[in-house]
Design brief:
Layout: H1 3-21, E1 25-29, H2 34-48, E2 52-56, H3 59-67, E3 73-76, H4 82-88, E4 90-105, E5 115-116, H5 118-126, H6 135-138, E6 152-156, H7 161-173, H8 175-180, E7 193-195, H9 197-207, E8 211-216, H10 217-222, E9 226-227, E10 229-231, E11 237-238, H11 242-249, E12 274-282, E13 284-285, H12 288-304, H13 306-311, E14 315-316, H14 319-328, E15 333-334
Parallel strand pairs: 1-2, 1-3, 5-10, 6-7, 6-8, 13-15
Antiparallel strand pairs: 3-12, 4-8, 4-9, 4-12, 4-14, 10-11
Length: about 350
């Protein structure tokens, strides 16, 4: 072998591991985690050369796409029950924890100044409370000048895990909401105009005077939106921030099941509309290399992504939960029963 050919062979051998790492993967679903997934995928690409294409299309669409196998992973803020996972041949695991927050655009009210309860919030979205100076709102906000203006309700127009978290909470704290509307990724809204995605609701509220909507906290923070305080199960009015999201998540028993809904949790500091966001994948993989690419990415995110998550006010998973997730990844196998990706190996 001549020296030029030798150098070419050695160079090709050196590049082979890098090429193996550069397996692309595709996912679609929840807009709730889209800001952190965008940050992670960009940093991951710079670190490894591998590309992860994530489409922020809403939890409902994400679940449909993973069931149809048109993506390598689906993402949803509404966890599936263990029975539903088994029926569809799926596994799910959490990635981060965050909060859904009511946001308002009302002149003269300072950020965090307005206080609401779950019962009042539900009545606003039911269309029962229609004015900002309604006695039910005024009674919670002594000393705050509330305008004699109609409330413009903004909600999601698409199937949404953020909507599931929000409506699950309202169903726990407002009996009328539970009986008339209920919970789900899509509901029959009694009032309001719809925006597509957390992005659409954020933009709609910012443009529409005297409006109220609900978004994942990262969108409120990025857009410098006016959030409200909510009274939690302990009776305290609390702000939306990562410490209070963490307080709400403290009681989850992940050892029992990854089906965990974190709304209206006990604890003096708990933010009442907290939720985890989840990834769904098929247990039996027709394309195991794609599955391995997905799991490599989330393994990297668990190792390297906590600081980025904190910058966007998401709560990272505790190490004990990450260990449980990595163990569960062993259930994802090719059609011959071989594990698609062994974390830490």
């Amino acid at each position: 072998m001549n020296s030029t050919l030798s150098r070419w062979v050695l160079a090709a051998a050196a590049l082979a591991p890098a090429c193996a790492l550069a397996q692309d993967a595709t996912g679609a679903g929840a807009t709730f985690p889209a800001p952190i997934y965008a940050k992670w995928t960009d940093a991951y690409n710079k670190a490894t050369g591998a590309r992860v294409n994530y489409q922020s299309v809403g939890s409902g669409a994400g679940l449909n796409q993973i069931r149809a196998k048109t993506v390598d992973f689906g993402a949803s803020d509404m966890p599936l029950t263990d029975e539903a996972l088994a029926k569809d041949g799926l596994v799910q695991f959490p990635t981060v924890i965050g909060g859904v927050v009511p946001v308002i655009n009302v002149a003269g009210i300072a950020p965090g100044q307005l206080k609401l309860t779950g019962a009042v919030l539900g009545d606003i979205f039911l269309g029962k409370i229609t004015k900002w100076n309604d006695a039910a709102i005024a009674g919670l906000n002594a000393g705050v000048t509330l305008p004699d203006a109609a409330i413009a309700v903004v909600r999601r127009a698409d199937g949404s895990g953020t909507t599931f978290i929000f409506t699950n909470y309202l169903s726990k704290v407002n009996p009328d909401w539970k009986s008339k509307v209920g919970e789900g990724t899509a509901v029959n809204w009694p009032a309001g105009a719809g925006g597509k995605g957390n992005e659409g609701v954020s933009a709609f509220v910012q443009r529409l005077p005297n409006s109220i909507g609900y978004v994942e906290y990262a969108y409120a923070k990025q857009n410098k939106m006016n959030t409200v305080k909510l009274r939690n199960q302990a009776g305290n009015f609390v702000e939306s921030d990562d410490d209070n999201f963490k307080a709400a998540a403290a009681g989850a028993d992940w050892n029992k099941s990854f089906y965990q809904v974190l709304t209206d949790q006990p604890g003096k500091d708990a933010w009442p509309i907290t939720g985890a966001t989840f990834i769904m994948m098929h247990k039996v993989q027709d394309k195991p290399a794609q599955a391995a690419a997905v799991l490599k990415f989330f393994d990297w995110a668990y190792n390297q992504g906590d600081k980025m998550a904190a910058e966007l006010e998401y709560v990272s998973l505790p190490d004990s939960l990450k260990a449980l997730v990595r163990k569960q990844w062993g259930e994802i196998k090719d059609t011959g029963g071989k594990v698609a990706y062994a974390a830490g190996k």
